[in-house]
Amino acid sequence: MKKIARELFWWIKTLAIALVCAILINNTLIAHAQVISGSMESTIMTGSRVMGSRISYVLNQPERFDIILFDPPYDAPMLYVKRIIGLPNETVVIIDGNVYIDGSNIPLDDSFINEPARGNYGPFFVPNGSYFVMGDNRNRSSDSRHWANSFVPHENIVGRLYFEYFPTPHLFD
Fold this sequence. Notes:
Elements: H1 2-28, E1 30-34, E2 49-53, H2 56-59, E3 67-70, E4 80-86, E5 91-95, E6 98-101, E7 121-125, E8 130-134, E9 152-153, E10 157-166, E11 170-171
């Protein structure tokens, strides 16, 4: 009987340690989400499960074109996934679907979007400590162009997206 109790205690201790480690890793190192809309298609498809690094921006600042996981600037029960387009203290203007930064005559490279974007938006002046984000499926994305509070504050960024693990494993650079 003593041997069974010792074995049972060993299993309970092992499972408890594994659970504590999983909770710590999930709350400090990684973030994961399920993409429930088509706003990032064809980069990330609806229903995909993705994972990002919570520590990506501890020593580095977010950069243009990073795909991020974030708490939206309004009440929502899930993490959002979008691409950073405008950086702090920049002015973003969208003319005929083309994105221009700080009055440039050359639009941003948008070779990652799935179809030509439409519409005119802005100008949007991105406040210090915030970011302007858009989905890659520009014509079907609820993003900074449409939100009442157009910007994602730095503190709302949970992490940088690095990996899709379902349905098809895929790394993002």
